[in-house]
Each structure stands twice: as C-alpha cells, then as structure tokens.
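Repro:
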Amino acid sequence: MTRSTLKAGSAVLLAVFVALAVAACAQSAAPAEQSETAAAATAVPVAAPATGDSASAAEPTTAAAASVETTPAVVLPTGELPATSAPTSTPAEEAKARPIAQDIPNVEGIDAWLNTDEELSIQGLVGEGNVVLVDFWTYTCVNCIRTLPFLRDWWSQYEDDGLVILGIHTPEFEFEKDHDNVMEALETHEIGWPVAQDNDMVTWRNFENRYWPAKYLFNSHGEMIYSHFGEGAYGETEQKIRNALVEAGADLSDDPLNLPEDQVRDAAFQAARVGGRAPVTPELYAGWQRNVGVARSGRHPYVAQFDEYFGAILDGGDGVIDVEVPQDLQPHLLYFQGQWSVEPERIRHARVTESLEDYLALNYAAKSVNAVLTSDSGEPYRVVVTADGAMLSEENAGADIEWDENGYSYIMVDEPRMYGIIDNAQYLPQSILTMRSDSDDFGLFAFTFGVYAEGP
C-alpha cells in the first residue's frame, strides 16, 4: 500500500466520522416540541375526494409521509425558538359554539304526534346538537312511498350519529286525516321516526311548502342548508346529511360511504325516450275539486266526459251522471260507463249492480299503474281489473291483484290506501285498463303511474 493510498483512505474515514458526529449532534439538539409535532402529523389522514364512488377513492396517506418526499431540509437558527400556540378548539367545537338560528319554521297546529311521547320542535332538536331532516309526505302519495326506503336507510344508519328525521304528514285527501289510517301506514311502511299529523296544513304553510314529498335539512345550528322536492337526488341528500353530522362533531369513520343511486328506469322506456316518443300518463284525479281547478287554468279536465261531469254539480244537479264509454278512448283521460256520483275528492259508483255492467276505462302509457281507493262502509268489495280486454296474468299484475277460481283478476278493497293495479313486464306506450265493481262503495280518488324497472 502506498502513502497516497493510505492518505486517501484516512480522508474517507475522517469524512464518515464527521458526518456521523454532525448527525448525532443534530438529533440531540432537536427541540422537543418539533418531534411531538411530527408525531401528531403522522396521525392526520389526508382525506380522499368525495366522489360518491368508494371504489375510486384515493388511498389515504399522511401529512408526515408527504412531507418526507416533498419538503427540502431546513437549517434552523441557533438559540431559543418562540413558542407556538396550539388551536384552542376543534372545528366541531367552534361549530357547536355558533348560536342557534332564529328564523326556523315552527312545527305547530299538529293534531297528533306519532312514534314519540312528546311534542317536538326543530329548535329544541338542534339545540341538543342534532341534525334534523324534515320530510313532508302523505301516505297514499306514490312519490312519497318511493322515497321511504331511502329514509329508512338514513334513519337506521345515522340515528345514533345525531340525525333526527321528523315526518310531517300533511294529507291530500280527507280520509288521510284519520289517526288510525296514518298509524296503519306507519306500520305498513316500517316508519319508526317521529311523525306529526299536520291535518290543517299549518306547518306546511309555515314552510311555504308546495310539494309531496319535500325534504328540508337543518344543521345543528338550525340553519336550513338543503332542500329537495320530489323523488331522486338520494346520493346528494345523503352526502348533505353526512356533511352536517360531521360538522356537528359526529365520527362517521365506522359508517361506510356508499351513497345510494336513484331508481333505475325501465329499459323499454329509456329506449323509447331515445327514439323521441315516450309518453307517460300524468297523475289523474277523479274528484270535481281538482277537475274544476285544471279547467279554470285552461287545461283539459282529467275526466273525458266533462260536459256531463260538470253538469252534474252545476245548477242544482244531484251529482249523478249516467254516461257511456265511446269506442275510441283518447289517451290519459278517465272514462266512465253507467251511473256515477261526482264528489269533491272522488267519483263513486252510484248504484248496486249484479253483472259488472258499470266500469271505468283508461288508455294509459306507463309500466305500472296504482289507484287510490276507499271503502266508506268498512266492508271489503271486489274490483275486477282487465288490460286490453283480458284478465291480468302474473306478467302484468300489480302487487294487490288476486285471482278467483274462474280466473278473474281482481283487487279486494278493504281499507283506504293506494293499491298496486298493473305492473307490466316493460313500459307500454298504450294499453287499455278497465275496472269494474258491483258495489256502490267503489270510489276512485286518483291514478298514479310509474316507469321504474321495479316498484310502484
């Protein structure tokens, strides 16, 4: 070994020792608060983007891990560093400290409270730190019925996190004001959250509401932060609920983010829409109050034979019409055969018959058909249902259809509610529905229609 080689080797060893010594000194000189800050940073996750699709969410990382790769080395000055002040409160604590809003609509004029032993107010609920979702509904409304599965899911998942669902049952028809009828509906639809019977629409007017269903979301300070009218937007609504709960201090780390999608429309209906021709029969009302209202607005009444229909209630008429169904039925209009009593909320079969000679007929466009019917006497009665001149089969029968020993398809009307009449295998742009009963209890309030792949 030469002298020059030994000299070079000594220089290398000296450089290594110096580097190790400097590193050791730097480690021992690091301030205690700096190491604690680094430890805290390691525990802070970087949130993944809220895409609504859990499969596309980015893997969480940490602030400390990110700083290792991106932050250059910093040479600290010598001497004592100024003390840093830690935050005095968390965002959730700051949110709770905000005052409760003063302009919250009052829940008042309530005839009865269901699923709760006490009268509730939005002010009181948010004052306890809750997030409140107000849901205006009525139990025969098909649009309301379609939203109930989503409400049940939210109530089940977030009740323990501070979500209170407050149902405001505001009736559309007189029989929906009956306490027993509403209680039966709560059981049928498995509704466990508090419901207020707003029979006189006092709370409805306080909210200046106009729709069934309608949802209003209040954060824990009583601020109305979101509203939605009608069906749909379920994923958006749940995300708003989650945001409000987190702001109120809820820990949703154990509640999976799996936002719901809106109901899927029938494939045949969607294909028809692409082709540009996909009519859907709108909701049809049989009572004269609604028919007079649409006539005054310049639109065609829901009833086709409107001359006889309105003549029965004008100029001292007795309210009974005797009409015949023509051979050609115009779409989306109600037709009647025989004697019928024209009443404010419905049209009722006006006599007892023996051979099903009186009936109603409708040329509709939809996948499913529902009817709101009652029995004034409390006695059940049969309504025979046909489609395009034939009895219904398993392929097109609604949820409430039965068959007798002769193959007649019928529904048994035994309570005031919405009945599932037709559920076709796919959307039909035209089909003739008839409903017949010998009972003078047979009274139609409304028809509703659907184009979803599943459900009413």
